[in-house]
């Protein structure tokens, strides 16, 4: 092959490097820039004349130098490529994102490849860094993950209150019951409903009834610990699972909730609505046949509170 042919092939390769839609940077063993293609020029705003023979780390101080040196040393020692993906490291070089579709992101997500470059003598004296703009892929993936998370949230929560729906909190109760059986842990279940709720709907309308239910849900959230699980049982009835709580702690929680509900007032249109709740408490320390029996016990205690005059707390007694 003649020198002219070699030159023509090199010229063709350089033209390809300049025109492809990925970043191409060649670094020597001192991490000085030797090749800087058009993609890099456009994304960084730096001309080849401004970066040639300059330290890569001086040009891009955001690069984790120790980490990048280890990556390059691995490539040059083993003679094999190395890769990074945006899920693990969103970007290597902080370039602005100018894509109109994904313009809400302020930086370009990147995958990268490091390739060893051998000289004529077979030694690896350079590495080639290739940068891929994967912003569209990353944004689509993140939007899909967010949508899936929202679907999961909607499938486990009650639309009116934002509390867990019956299917979800009952599964949480089942899991906590299994944990109790295995580790002999404590737990309690509080079940309650709004007293004379039908009268609220009849006197003030169903929108007022919904406002009362939402107010109760807000009061529950204000009095929960991070580990507690609150849900809507159905209609005006609610449950709260209290992990690692004995019957004394559960009674204190229930009484506090009864008090704050009694003290609150819901304003709907020109009406000021006062109401109370009746509560039942079941304790997991009592031997039982399963988590469903705990629900039955709490419901039975709730019924006892209703029968005794409402606006009170009752502990289930075997």
UniProtKB/TrEMBL annotation:
It holds the Pfam family GGDEF. Residues 185-318 form the GGDEF domain. SUPFAM superfamilies: Nucleotide cyclase (SSF55073), PYP-like sensor domain (PAS domain) (SSF55785). Its EC number is 2.7.7.65. Keywords: Kinase, Transferase. Signal peptide: none annotated. It comes from the Bacteria. This is diguanylate cyclase. It comes from Stutzerimonas nitrititolerans.
